[in-house]
Amino acid sequence: PIAAKMLADFYKAAGADRLLSVDLHTGQIQGFFDAPFDHLTALPLLADHLAESLKDDLVIVSPDAGGVRLADKWAEYLGDFHGLNGQVAFLHKRRRHEARNVSETLRVVGEVKGRVCLMVDDMIDTAGTITNGAESLKAAGAAEVLAAATHPVLSGPGVDRLKNAPIEQVVVTNTLPVPPEKKLDKLVVLSIAPTIAQTIKAVFEEESVSELFHGENQR
Known about the structure:
Oligomer: single chain
Strand content: 25-35%
Mean pLDDT: 90
CATH topology of the largest domain: Rossmann fold
Largest sheet: 7 strands, mixed
CATH class of the largest domain: Alpha Beta
Structural class: alpha/beta
């Protein structure tokens, strides 16, 4: 939070009178900038792309309990705009204390057996969370696992983990560049440029930004 506040102050000092961002990791960051702040979301872009290959046996999965709200947004959007009746599940991390060792296991909360599971998050960094989640979902009987996230950080072992994970497809945007050496056959990168362009146009023409995202960027 301190770093985010400092960065917002830098923009303000440099003369910025409005900021646009895409899927902040913490939405409260908007409050650090005392001027108009447009929080864009890539949810419609990602969901519209994936909807073509999804069916009603879909389960939207959050990698942790804290991300259930995002999974709910996905389920609602896919239902409202694509007629998909997706359920929501999440992964609960449990710590086990055995002798001097502490181990962590993931428990699937929700019905996933025989169903297509779509894991959603705001970013994929080292990919530990998403690959462990995918393995837990497959162990629980999931027929197929897909993943979607806005920001492809892909640091450290992230690419190798995704390559070896039981995930059929990973869909991200190009909010961060994905260099050639990090590209995988299962990794689909969508351009966020049209979303940003439409937002800038709406701002200059004094139109509603939230309508571009069907209100998904405001909740």
